[in-house]
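In response to reviewer comment 3 from the previous cycle, which asked for concrete evidence that the modeling workflow produces usable outputs, we include below a single protein chain processed end to end. The sequence was submitted unchanged, and the resulting structure tokens are shown without manual editing.
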Amino acid sequence: MPKYCLLTNDVETHSIWFNTLRDETGVKVLEEGMPLLLDIYKKFNIKSTFYFVGDMAEKFPEVVRMVVPFGHEVASHGWSHEVDQAFDVLSFDKQKEHLIRSKKVLEDISGQEVTSFRAPALRVNSDTPRALIEAGFNCDSSVAAQRFDMFLSFGGMKKLNWLKAPRLPYRTDPNNLFRKGDGPLIEIPLTAMLFPFVGTTMRIFPTITRMQQRLFHAETKSTGKPLVFDIHPNEMIDESTERRTIARRTKNPIKYLLSDVIRGKMKVKNLGPQAAVLYDDFISYYKNQGYEFITVKDYVKRNFPDIR
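The workflow returned the following structure tokens.
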């Protein structure tokens, strides 16, 4: 049974240090974060999937172009990462508009067909599957099956659906990304089990991530489930030389405390070069276990051959 590791990257202008979107952070991602991340993948000869936010790609087209020569997949992370533009609060028409717009910009810049999507902050609703299909996407990766930190992020109530979502890749219900169905859209769930399996956990709790690796490796050997890991190039930059203020993104005091203050303070550990060292060690584990590193698009082609 083949063992697949799908390393995925969400590319946005979000500053972890300031907890807000900033063009200045976009510049640092372009000049520092992306080159460091691409060097790690080049070292291990890895093909990865990059989910780009459309408005960032429009402002910084070189951030998209730089991944193409290495054979990485260009995918969509929606048009905007603004909290009030999340897919779980947008209408069907607005979602479709964002998807079509981001797809066109990314295809024009990269010269690749863009068929994979991941929602900003993993926020989706019942309109999202149909919007994706009508916009020309065949794959989503916005579901984190059995992940249990949703109350520390926006859209937490809808994310309760993660707890009952299938763990292995599946065809979705046309009206529900969290449920199996017979639709033309494939869901590639992010790997999780209570704690998320992402760069943030790797940086804040490296011991937990090492335990996760052993647990999920056993699951892959047993079921064939691909490892799907998510990291951000903004984790590879260090903005701590600037005086820190944590931006407030909501008027709700509980959401502000959980999603901005507590989460914001936790997420700054091991940013910059320290994150690169941890990620290098993380990848080495799977190299030593004989995993094949492929893009999300290639995984779908291999395992769902009727999907165009």
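The CA atoms of residues 43 and 185 lie 33 Å apart. We consider this sufficient to address the reviewer's concern, and the full set will be provided in the supplementary archive.
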